[in-house]
């Protein structure tokens, strides 16, 4: 997926579209990413995948795991491991809040989107709780009903 520009001028590198289907997102946090030079270049080319990524708080630091950034083509020996753990840059009180929330049963930190804002690589983290199958079905039913209502309104205007 190539880069997209959002309304706020952010260049989106990659998104986790399944996260909103699998999890109920209660709160979001914007975090910076500690990257090496060739990783930044690879992300600027629109490469990267957060589909299997997750975040965790370890030793009063936040880390993102399984975030795949492919090696930069012209990077030769300076390329880092594509799925190495990367440090997330957050304020201390945010890290403490996330650590306490994840310690509660059923909560996890899910990366929702990676993007560039004002020249800096950012990741949007969601504090999420897993959905049950029943919840997923209700969401699908609600979406279908909304689509049908929009279709009926559109046909009525014609």
- CATH level 3 topology: Small Protein B, Chain: A
Proportion of residues in extended strands:
25-35%
Q: What form results from the Cα inertia axes?
A: globular
For the secondary structure, the number of strands is 8
Helix content: 25-40%
List low-pLDDT spans.
none
| Number of self-contained structural domains | 1
Name of the CATH homologous superfamily:
Small protein B
Query: SSE order in H/E notation?
Result: EEHEHEEEHEEH
Q: What is the CA-atom radius of gyration, in angstroms? A: 18 Å
Mean pLDDT: 89
End-to-end CA span: 36 Å
Main β-sheet, spatial strand arrangement:
1-2-7-8-3-6-5-4
* CATH top-level class: Mainly Beta
The secondary-structure class comes to: alpha+beta
Please give the count of helices.
Answer: 4
Q: Short description, anyone?
A:
Helix content is 31%, strand content 34%. It is α+β, with helices and mostly antiparallel strands.
Description:
Helices cover 31% and strands 34% of the residues. It is an alpha+beta fold and 158 residues long. Strands 1-2-7-8-3-6-5-4 form an eight-stranded antiparallel beta sheet. The radius of gyration is 18 Å and the shape is globular. The protein starts with a strand and ends with a helix.
How do the strands and helices of this protein lay out in sequence?
Elements: E1 4-5, E2 11-15, H1 19-22, E3 23-33, H2 37-44, E4 54-58, E5 61-65, E6 86-89, H3 92-103, E7 107-117, E8 120-130, H4 133-157
What are the salient characteristics of this protein?
158 residues, alpha+beta, Small Protein B, Chain: A, eight-stranded antiparallel β-sheet, 8 strands, 31% helix, globular
């Amino acid at each position: 997926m190539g880069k997209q520009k959002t309304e706020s001028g952010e260049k989106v590198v990659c998104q986790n579209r399944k996260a909103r289907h699998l999890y109920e997102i209660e709160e979001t946090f914007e975090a910076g990413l500690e990257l090496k030079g060739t990783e930044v270049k690879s992300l600027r080319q629109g490469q990267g995948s957060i589909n299997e990524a997750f975040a965790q708080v370890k030793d009063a630091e936040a880390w993102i795991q399984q975030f795949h950034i492919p090696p930069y083509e012209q990077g030769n020996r300076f390329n880092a491991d594509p799925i190495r753990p990367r440090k997330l840059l957050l304020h201390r009180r945010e890290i403490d809040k996330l650590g306490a929330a994840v310690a509660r049963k059923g909560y996890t930190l899910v990366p929702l989107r990676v993007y560039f804002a004002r020249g800096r690589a950012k990741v949007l983290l969601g504090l999420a709780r897993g959905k049950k199958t029943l919840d997923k079905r209700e969401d699908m039913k609600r979406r279908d009903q909304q689509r049908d209502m929009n279709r009926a309104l559109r046909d009525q205007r014609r």
